[in-house]
TrEMBL record:
Gene3D superfamilies: 3.30.450.40, 3.30.70.270, EAL domain. This is Diguanylate cyclase. It comes from the Bacteria. Residues 344-597 form the EAL domain. SMART domains: EAL, GGDEF. SUPFAM superfamilies: EAL domain-like, GAF domain-like, Nucleotide cyclase. GO terms for molecular function: cyclic-guanylate-specific phosphodiesterase activity.
Length: 597
């Protein structure tokens, strides 16, 4: 008891403790040899951990005993028996053991106690006497206590290990092996606690977000996105930056770094450049070269916040600011950012509310045939009537919807509303032409999109032919089998697909040819200066030629005047859309237009 509670003892490692206990046993009981054995995982053999001889001291040479030779001995141990034997050569439990024990031999009596390790037999502590000895009750009690003590040491070790494991799991991100958000918070908390109010020790929190990871996931596949995340993690971890203290992964594509002692902002600049540069080298995923960048937001303790949440919030909003100013750059937090972050947060939650509670509305802009008269379709355009800001154009709030991850929900709301309007028009016996709905990249990548659309068509008893979907070029770049499948399922329902804002993005001819699109919409920026601008004329002509070659129809957007119309008609553009014909209008107005009074 005294030994176990001495500071010297508790500070030792497991082997050290076993050595001390064996020596104590040898001395106090006056036995010739004390050895400690552990069972292997299967429980079929015993391995000697150490043996202590009174004359010669410790001996760490390994020995091994198998169950097959020592059946009775093993059975007794498993039954938690204390094996107290006066004459080794006559007791069935130790008979074979006396033949096996070749290390010095000469054992007349044995006193062995099983050691338990949680729920299994963990080993045995064995006392051997060279002369025959009748073990007393005190001997037995003593060795039992020692065996119990070893069991306790085993349990403690197991507990420590599991705590280490648990600690690892709760503080690390298992995808990248970096620290996680919890570890980051703990670390910041410690830094803040260490720092004194009178003489604060400043540090910087860098919030690092991969630019356009969504586009990479959508365009090149999720496996490429995953590779990018783990490579960025590896580069951030591997960077040799004086002052770098901890790197954590705090979200899907977000990382955080704590940077110490940035006393002069100059050194901070250097660190930021180094990060941007390290991430800027192309990442190879298989044969593909992927160009990646990050946006970084930086807040300083204690100047930009003296508690964890404020520091994190501020570095995060600075990061959003860096993104909004063109990505691939760093932004230091300042009070303007704070104000705009608050406003943004408010607007985001109001938009979410509008989507959920029918706070949006739809306007329809008619599309006419080449003759500039016949109404052949309409495009549904979303509107948001904001309480204080009034009617907001999609150009103002769609970027917000994208960043807040609300865009797919918005598109779905639109689809549903348009289906309802089609159904209602049908009930009023007004035949609407096909209505085109805009779909964001997020919505088109939703693997459940075709099921959802199918559900809506069914619910509102709308035919697929009454609906068209427009997606921008960039939403379909890259190769994805899932996208193709979604598009084909939509086409099978009778829905026509068009590529919106054609000419502004990137799409290979091959993609155009292989995906089931039937229409191109020429972006307004090309029609605007027709026919004066020769470049725009050339681009429009080449789009028309391309479409003809691929058997696609063409809609010109943004037609505002007579000259544009005449030129487009002459070049054989199939459909026209713009203020020259109609402004976007309510469904009621559209119906009136369709049944002239
Ligand atoms: P878009 O798909 O290119 O839609 C046409 C835009 O051009 C509309 O702006 C329309 O009002 C405007 N426009 C039409 N004719 C003319 C014209 O002759 N002159 C001029 N200057 N403009 C004309 P709007 O409604 O502000 O929509 C802007 C963009 O917002 C749309 O561009 C579309 O990309 C997006 N959008 C609109 N509704 C939705 C929606 O429900 N979901 C998604 N994902 N995007 C939408
Ligand atoms: Ca459109
Ligand atoms: Ca467009």
């Amino acid at each position: 008891m005294q030994l176990q509670h001495s500071r010297d003892f508790s500070g030792r490692d497991k082997r050290g403790k076993l050595e001390a206990l064996s020596a104590l046993c040898g001395e106090l009981l006056g036995v010739d040899k004390v050895s400690v054995w552990t069972t292997c995982i299967s429980g079929n053999s015993l391995n000697r951990v150490l043996s202590y001889r009174r004359e010669s001291g410790l001996d760490n040479s390994p020995r091994n005993l198998g169950r097959e030779q020592l059946g009775d001995y093993f059975s007794a141990l498993s039954a938690a028996e204390i094996i107290s034997v006066e004459d080794v050569s006559s007791d069935p439990r130790t008979l074979t053991l006396s033949h096996c024990d070749g290390d010095g031999g000469g054992v007349a009596s044995l006193l062995d106690a099983p050691i338990f390790d949680g729920c299994r037999l963990g080993g045995v502590i064995s006392l051997a006497a060279g002369q025959r000895r009748r073990w007393t009750l005190a001997d037995i009690a003593f060795v039992t206590a020692i065996a119990g003590c070893v069991s306790l040491i085993n349990s403690h070790e197991a507990w420590l290990n599991s705590r280490k494991e648990l600690d690892y799991v709760t503080h690390h991100d298992d995808f990248t092996g970096l620290f996680n958000q919890r570890a980051l918070r703990n670390h910041i908390k410690r830094l803040i606690e260490q720092s004194s109010r009178a003489l604060p020790e400043p540090f910087a929190l860098l919030w690092i977000d991969i630019d356009r990871l969504n586009a990479i996931n959508n365009g090149m596949g999720l496996h490429v996105g995953n590779e990018v995340v783990s490579e960025v993690a590896a580069r951030l971890r591997g960077m040799l930056l004086p002052g770098k203290e901890l790197v954590a992964r705090v979200g899907g594509d977000e990382f955080a770094m704590i940077y110490r002692f940035p006393k002069e902002v100059g050194t901070m600049h250097g660190a930021v450049d180094a990060i941007l540069e390290a991430i800027g080298h192309p990442i190879m995923v298989g044969e593909q070269k992927v160009q990646v960048s990050v946006s970084i937001g930086i807040s300083f303790f204690p100047y930009d916040g003296d508690d964890i949440s404020t520091l994190i919030r501020h570095s995060e909003s600075a990061m959003y600011h860096a993104k909004a100013s063109g990505r691939r750059q760093a932004q230091y937090f300042n009070q303007d950012i704070s104000a705009s972050a608050k406003a943004r947060f408010l607007l985001e939650s109001q938009l979410a509310d509008a989507i959920a509670n029918n706070g949006l509305s739809v306007l329809y802009q008619p599309i006419v045939a080449n003759d500039g008269q016949r109404l052949v379709g309409a495009e549904a355009l979303v509107r948001w009537h904001h309480e204080t800001l009034g009617f907001m154009s999609p150009a103002e709030f769609l970027p917000l919807a994208y960043e807040a991850g609300l865009i797919a929900a918005l598109d779905q709301w639109m689809l549903e509303r348009v289906c309802r309007d089609i159904r209602e028009s049908c009930r009023l016996e007004v035949a609407l032409p096909p209505v085109a709905v805009n779909l964001s990249a997020d919505a088109i990548m939703d693997p459940q999109l075709s099921d959802k659309v199918w559900g809506m068509l069914h619910r509102y008893q709308v035919k697929g032919e009454q609906l068209e979907l427009e997606v921008i070029e960039d939403a379909i770049k890259g190769d994805s089998r899932a996208l193709r499948q979604t598009l084909e399922e939509l086409v099978r329902m009778g829905i026509k697909l068009s590529i919106d804002d054609f000419g502004t993005g990137y799409s290979s001819l091959l993609r155009l040819k292989n995906l089931p699109f039937t229409k191109l919409k020429i972006d307004r920026s090309f029609t605007r200066d027709l026919p004066q601008d020769v470049d725009d004329c050339a681009i429009t002509l080449s789009i028309l030629g391309l479409a003809r070659g691929l058997g696609l129809e063409v809609v010109a957007e943004g037609v505002e005047n007579q000259e544009q119309e005449a030129w487009l008609q002459e070049q054989g553009c199939d459909y026209l859309q713009g203020f020259k014909y109609h402004q976007p209008m309510s469904i009621e107005r559209l119906r009136e237009l369709l049944i002239p009074a």
